[in-house]
Amino acid sequence: MSKIAYVNGQYVRQYEAAVNIEDRGYQFGDGIYEVVHLYAGRYVDEDLHLARLERSLKEIRLPMPMSRAALRMVLREVARRNRVTEGLLYMQVTRGVARRDHPFPAKPVPPALVVTVKRIAPYPTDIDTWQASAITLPDLRWARRDIKSVNLLPNCLARQAAREKGAIEAILYDEATGIVNEGAATTFWIIDAKGAIRTRHLDHVILPGCTRGALMAELRATGIAWDETPFTLDDVKQAREAFITSATSFVRPITKIDGAPVGDGTVGPVVRRLFDIFARHVKGDLRNAA
């Protein structure tokens, strides 16, 4: 069966889909994207992702291409036409088609919207097979990382460097201070030497991860504390456990960083518990069940 995409008001075969070469997303990276995890027909944290989409668009002064309700219908229709109940829905909004010029078009043009879906494996059931390694790299991205822009070249270079080292993620840090920011495409967490769950606080330096926010909500409901004070590479070296979160990583243990074991190099008890908590969240068994 041919894959079906939504492109600017039409459902088309994906191999036939096309965008204008003067689309500002193609020429300038002038656009925003979001990804929603579809689990057994359930749109996980959909409200968080759509709210972040709206926020990112507002930050670059780009209107929503349609109402949130209409966009929900498009997501569901793309999933239905592709017969996908377990996958990732990708949506991208750009400033549209205009003569190439760096400032925004003098006469506003309609935003361009593309939605696609791809199948993924189910939420992992064995955390020990889900553990992975990471590397660390200086953070070379632009200053507004809180905006989910399609400008991802530094992220791609970091992820490629990780792949070449046999790792799945690059943990990015401020070269001047040594403070850890986030992963190239994930939120990074540690269980520090004292046993505290820690991740960086939100500001313009990191993306407000939807999985990060959903996990925090579940921790709050469960009575588990966490800390958003900054931590450094030295703190990471002394950490008992580490993990990453994202719509595709869920809660993923990181047991080796830069070739050295995190803690004793195995999946620790705290990450095991968080993995189980988030698994139930994804399946709709906890407070946020849809």
Overview of the molecule:
The structure is a single chain. The protein has helices at 24-28, 46-59, 68-81, 127-130, 153-164, 210-222, 233-237, 269-282, and strands spanning 4-7, 10-13, 31-39, 42-44, 87-94, 112-119, 132-138, 169-173, 180-183, 187-191, 197-199, 241-246, 250-257, 260-261. The two termini are 30 Å apart. The longest helix is centred in the first third of the chain and has 14 residues, at 46-59. Strands 7, 8, 9, 10, 11, 12, 13 and 14 form an 8-stranded mixed beta sheet that branches. The chain has 290 residues and is of the alpha+beta class. It is globular and about 55 Å long. It contains 8 helices and 14 strands. Strand 8 (169-173) and strand 9 form a beta hairpin.
Care to give the gist of this entry?
This protein is an alpha+beta fold and 290 residues long. The chain has eight helices and 14 strands.
Task: Name some characteristics of this structure.
290 residues; 28% helix; alpha+beta; 8-stranded mixed β-sheet
